[in-house]
Amino acid sequence: MSKQEISDQQQLFAYQQIMPLFPQLFNDDVSVAIANQQKFIQVIPNSNLPINSNVGDLVPDGGAVHDALISGKTVIREVPAKVYGVAFQSYAFPLINQKQTIGVLVVGKSLNRKQQILERAQNLATALSQTTTAINEIATGAQSLNENNQDLAKTAEDTTNKMHDIQKVVSFIQSVSQKINMLGINAAIAAAHTSDSKSAGFGVIAQEIRKLSASTAKSVSEIEDVLIEIDQSVNSFSSKLTASVNTIGEQSAAAEQVLASMEELNETAKMMENVANSL
């Protein structure tokens, strides 16, 4: 054997001595192995990460170990769960001696924890997205309801103004009623100062005028009572509507704040997903 062959063997042997320490460097389940230029010379499997290689097995063509031997460069590949039943990341590090690749140190790191974190991050992102959509709909609905209530408040204000206009008309009718009553009184006085043949006619006219005045006054009074009730109802409705508008406005503002917070959480969830992908 040449000195180089001995040196190669010694170097591979040195790696074999420290190989049992490699699993302690990772937080995930790992399996490690060393291969020379032809076959695996040491394998340290993990019960949670079975690998289909044993000491003495030839290095298979097309695998990460084979490619690292040929290229002399580190080869990193992700192996899906369908291959060995569990997904893992494969790291094949070429072992160099005197500028020659003499073997490969391969580490298989379980992706179980990464997938769990990624799945949770994706679930969180989905839940946050759905919640954000729901809150956005609530905020939009609250805004629409607030606008409708403001329209109702404007209608209530217009109704109050119209009530005041009606009250002016009623006051005018009441004034006319009082004048009619005065006409009736004047007619009665005139009847008292005329002859008997004429007084009867004035008396009937005076009586009818006074009846009309009394009927008008009664109607005006009833209308006033109804208007007072309507005015009270409108004022009560307007007060409650104003309180409702204020409450909905506050809820809409609160929903906007929650929506902003949800957007921040969405960004955090995306960051978690990116971190999980980088593990």
How do the helices and strands line up, and which of them pair or pack?
Blueprint: H1 3-18, E1 30-36, E2 40-44, H2 64-71, E3 75-79, H3 81-84, E4 88-97, E5 100-110, H4 112-192, H5 196-278
Antiparallel strand pairs: 1-2, 1-5, 3-4, 4-5
Helix pairs in contact: 4-5
Task: Describe the 3D structure.
It holds the Pfam family MCPsignal. InterPro entries: MCPsignal_dom, Sensor-like_sf. Keywords: Coiled coil, Transducer. This protein is an alpha+beta fold. The protein has two domains: 3-110, Beta-Lactamase (2-Layer Sandwich); 116-278, Methyl-accepting chemotaxis protein (Helix Hairpins, Orthogonal Bundle). The protein is 69% helix and 14% strand. It contains five helices and five strands; from the N terminus they run αββαβαββαα. The chain has helices at 3-18, 64-71, 81-84, 112-192, 196-278; strands spanning 30-36, 40-44, 75-79, 88-97, 100-110. Strands 2-1-5-4-3 form a five-stranded antiparallel beta sheet, sandwiched between helices. Helix 4 (112-192) packs antiparallel against helix 5 (196-278). The chain is rod-shaped, with a radius of gyration of 49 Å. The model has no long low-confidence stretch (mean pLDDT 79).
